[in-house]
Amino acid sequence: MNALYKLFLFLFVVFFLFACAKKEDVIKIGTAGPFTGDQARIGNEGHLNSSCTKPASRIYNEKSVPMITPASTNPEITKQGYNNVFRTCGRDDQQGTELAKFVVEILKKKKVAVLHDKTTYGQGIAEEFKKSAGNKIEVVVYEGVTQGDQDFKPVLTKVKSSNPDVIFFGGMHTEGGLIIKQAKELGIKAPVIGGDGLYGSTLLEVAGPAAEGSYMAFFTPTAETEIGRNFVKNYTAKYGEIETYAPYAYDAANILLKAIAESKTTDGKKLIDAIHKIKYEGAVGTIEYDENGDIKKAGYAIYTVKDKKFITYSKSR
Asked: Please, what CATH class does the domain formed by 92-220+300-316 belong to?
């Protein structure tokens, strides 16, 4: 029966981590809607951005469709009272705490310029960082930028005049890469630090050599578990270097498969109940859910860019 359920799931489950647009108004009317009519839908793996996931979650909830995001970290996503929403990643408040601690206790910086891309994710993690840092660090600049812009030198000129020890950016790798590159071009020596949105090959491509020495939070290395090591080995052999959220998407899909196999049904409400009770050993470790759909244990590590690669900060010392 397991093979049948797997086939059935892969025929119907919605896989579109990167299909949604970056603008919230587009996802509200254009992406989630067509998937939730009278058609048979088992579950959804996604979305990528919190600004897509949050409005889409309401539609899936109305139809009792379980959704598991491997990448959306905004805390509000699992605070809406919807029992169908889960994630295999952590939250921005957890990232914000780790990043603030790193800046204050490890880097021992006193002044920070905070930039964000005004999205649910970007502004959210910037606020969490600021809140976690409290009065231990002085915020000398706090500015929003527009996602999709190419020239950040006007705001970076303001940043430069404030002479920060570090620049925090809440946003994704394309804009993050441009900010890192243009900050170097302006002679700003302060390193750039951010959340999981900065972790990815796009940042290295966009920022180029300027990326060296920047910092970002991301989840605990997959290769630290046996299942994770096997995943890395098999994935890289077939597809090449692992991109950002691949292991979290892999675990999200397999949690749906496991719930179907164990409950012997594809009924949405029963699957939601099964996922809440599940204990899954996956590529990113052991996953169990609390009442909100958050994983009970979310591990974060601080990474830095060295020799055009992301490595954990501890290994760079």
From this structure: alpha beta
Q: What's the chain's Rg over C-alpha atoms?
A: 20
Tokens at residue 130, please? Answer: 């600021």
Compute the Cα dihedral for 41, 42, 47, 52 and give only its sign. Answer: positive
Look up residue 187 and give its DSSP letter.
T
Query: In this structure, are strands 138-144 and 166-170 parallel, antiparallel, or unpaired?
Result: unpaired
**Quick check: helix, strand or coil at residue 281?**
strand
- Cis bond upstream, residue 173 (ω within 30): no
Residue at token pair 């491509």: 205
Q: Is the pLDDT of residue 118 over 50?
A: yes
What's the whole-number mean pLDDT along residues 234-259? 89
Give the model's pLDDT for residue 225.
77
Please state the domain extents for the chain: 2-89+266-288, 92-220+300-316
- Looking at this protein, which amino acid is placed at residue 201? S
Lowest mean pLDDT among 169-173, 227-231, 268-272: 227-231
How far apart CA 29 and CA 200 sit, in angstroms, is 29
Cβ atoms of 192 and 169 within 8 Å: the answer is: yes
b/e code 86-113 from CB counts within 10 Å (16+ = b):
bbbbbbbbbbbbbbbebbbeeeebeebb
Question: How many helical (H) and strand (E) elements, i.e. helices and strands, does the chain have?
Answer: 12, 13
Model confidence at 223, in pLDDT bands (50, 70, 90)?
low
**How far is it, in rounded angstroms, from Cα 91 to Cα 103?**
19
